[in-house]
Amino acid sequence: MMRRTLIMLLSLAMITSLLSGLSFAEKPMSTQIDYVFADIEEPQVGAAPSYDASYGGNGYFLSAGNNNPNYYKNGVGWYDITADKNVPVSGKFEADHIYKVMIFFEAKENYEFVPSFSAQINGTDAEVTFLSETAVMAELQFYRLPAERVNPFTDVHESDFFYDPVLWAVEDGVTTGTSATTFSPNANCTRGQVVTFLWRTAGCPEPHSYENPFKDVSADAYYYKAVLWAVGSNITAGTSFDTFSPDASCTRAQVVTFLWRANGRPEPKSTNPFADVSNNEYYYEAVLWAVERGITSGVSATSFAPDASCTRGQIVTFLYRFIGY
User: Fold this and answer.
1) CA Rg, the chain, in Å?
2) Which residues of 86-106 are buried (b: 16+ CB within 10 A; e: fewer)?
3) pTM (2 decimals)?
4) What is the 3-state secondary structure (H, E, C) of 41-66?
């Protein structure tokens, strides 16, 4: 009996020794992917879709989408929401359409996307669709592209500095043409017109007071509310205690002063390069501020021509730059 027990103990020891010298391959646990980000060129009217994006994160690669090379490339596809169809690789973005981009991510071996996985495209949270544990699609919808611009004016050309400002001003109701086919960009702008353009750019706010001190501003004039608003907002004053001179040409100095005051009278930080702008003039700070902001520049390196009349083309350009275009 003792001999048999000893044999069994020796056998068990030998088996344990043999097992300790063996190694067993274990299936590695999957590494989890919880976040990726991508940057891609946004749609532009008339441009071809971009399929070259930069990405961040690891453990994945870009799949071929649905493997249709006519619509997908480098793991990227585009969809025309307005037309309800995929955008072909050879296509171009159309005006007044809404598009979304679709980016397909596939996990590498031994990686998987966690249920809380999130993605950003161009810094914005994307909509994520799980195609499987190892494949996801991230989508981002872009804003509607602007409608194709129509220029009705024969005296406004694409090469003119005021081309975009004129079309913007007409589209946004800041002003209209002098006829259906002319804008008269070189015509002088009056004080009444300038405060009206500025008032409309501000959203046509109601005046602080309807008390009208000006005998040359009638209640039925198109600039009536604009003048009262501008005076009540300390943007401008009359040319005397009881006149506004709405039909007088507006000078370069007056226009930049109106804009400067409408912007809260910020203090300029630059030095004065203009020999015709004295530091004791009411428009001194306004001129320096306007030049700093890129709203206008001098007529030369050393002159601003503050008393020169402003044209319609110049006025809408100043306003266009003033609001940040």
Assistant:
1) 34
2) bbebeeebbeebebbbbbbbb
3) 0.61
4) CCCCCCCCCCCCCEEECCCEEECCCC
- Mean per-residue pLDDT over the chain, rounded: 88
Residues 88 and 128: beta-carbon distance below 8 Å: no
Determine the Cα–Cα distance for residues 136 and 120; give it in Å rounded to an integer.
13
Residue 76 CB: number of other CB atoms within 10 A? 22
Amino acid identity, residue 162?
A: F
Dihedral sign (CA 243, 246, 251, 256): positive
> 107 has which bridge partners?
60
Contact between 234 and 228 under an 8 Å Cβ cutoff? The reply is no
Residue with tokens 């299936």: 27
Residue keyed to tokens 């453990």: 59
Query: What order of strands is seen across the sheet that includes strand 31-39?
Result: 54-56, 31-39, 111-121, 124-125
pLDDT at residue number 30: 64
Sign of CA dihedral 309, 234, 197, 319: positive
DSSP-derived secondary structure letter, 311: B
Average the pLDDT over 134-151 and give the result.
Answer: 89
